[in-house]
Amino acid sequence: MIYLDYAATTPVDPRVAELMWTYLGPEGDFGNPGSSTHAYGQRARQAVEQAREQVAALINADPREIVWTSGATESDNLALKGALHALNGPKTGPAKRHLITCQSEHKAVLDTCRALEREGYRVTYLAPQADGRIDLSSLEAALSEDTALVSLMHVNNETGVLQDIAALGALTRTRGVLLHVDAAQSAGKIPIDVKAMQIDLLSLCGHKIYGPKGVGALYVGRRPRVRLEPLIHGGGQERGLRAGTLATHQIIGMGACCALAHTAMVAEQQDIQALRKQLLTQLQTLDGVYLNGSATHAAPNILNLSFAGVDAEALLMELDDIALSTGSACTSATAEPSHVLRSMGLSDVRMHSSIRFSLGRFTRPQDIDYTAQRVIAGVSRLRALSPLNYLETVR
């Protein structure tokens, strides 16, 4: 099998897995980081704090601004619910019950917004432009006196479209509105500086950057200070923001994968971007191949294409030795077309003919050549079976 679904999840880097194992067995540092009375717990606590420093270094944050979570979904929930609940408590002054997001956000944000609407909050869902980018003027027009927070992702998980977070952050900071960014798809692949980009809250995920599943982090800015109400109560871990015994081995894994990404990011992403260009060039030898998303503002590892006259699910069946997807793994159980592509104005026919290719650290040039050959053969075969003029079906 060739794996080209890195946007869904990445394999754990062998160097990370080897390190994680040393925090699991009886000969390792398996102690509870909260147990400060003996060496087992003390060593585990030291390792957790080192991992916190490694995550902070990747995004130019203070380690005290990193809160451990179970993944980006929990981080998104804690950021949105936690900030709005804190801003609208009994001693916080005038209510701020409005938040802004985008129709193309990950379901972890969209479903959290729906839950907040049921609590009486007001949500504005911005429509992206045809290339998937947010128009700054549309965000500015949506801001109001009671806007508490704006939540916009850095890199879209289906199209790879890259938003200008620095420009968005400059606007929200000027207006005194919190900015939350879901960086699950960008961290470790695109440089992030939370200070320069004026980000207040930022969600991170271990399993998108060659770390383990089940661990993530939330950056919570201290200057200006962001206050959150916790979602989980208990032992007071993470300064009271996220109770529960820390999963030491997973946290160590996330710290290690962030450190590796920090060191290798520039060179690695140049190589991956070259492979993405190689794949696109070869596939565009076919007629009726359309890029979904911006051609100039995109992550180096994600490519979303529509193949006119071809059903994407049928094409995936043709490519049974290549791991690909039609969109987000979090929505693959539904038969509905991609909400991301729909928000960009694509027709149902074009949405149903779209496939996401996502490349990563272990993708090789020969994988790209083989994939392109198989896709071209599969598309040609399916088009030959269709009675329709495929160039007319995509419009």
Report what the structure shows:
The protein has 395 residues and is an alpha/beta fold. 38% of the residues lie in helices and 13% in strands. It is built from twelve helices and twelve strands. The protein has helices at residues 14-21, 39-59, 72-87, 107-118, 136-142, 165-174, 248-283, 312-318, 339-343, 348-351, 365-385, 390-393, and strands at residues 2-3, 66-69, 98-102, 122-126, 147-151, 178-182, 201-205, 216-220, 289-291, 302-307, 322-323, 354-358. The strands form three sheets. Strands 2-8-7-6-5-3-4 form a seven-stranded mixed beta sheet, with helices on both faces. It has a three-stranded antiparallel beta sheet with strand order 9-10-12, covered by helices on one side. α4 (107-118) links the parallel β3 and β4 (122-126). α2 runs parallel beside α7 (248-283) and α7 crosses α11. It is globular, with a radius of gyration of 22 Å. The mean pLDDT is 95.
- Count, helices: 12
Number of strands: 12
Distance between the termini: 33 Å
Q: Approximately how much helix is present in the residues?
A: 25-40%
Radius of gyration of CA atoms, rounded to a whole number: 22 Å
Strand order of the largest sheet: 2-8-7-6-5-3-4
* Low-pLDDT runs: none
Q: Which range does the strand content fall in?
A: 5-15%
Rough shape?
A: globular
What is the mean predicted local confidence, pLDDT?
95
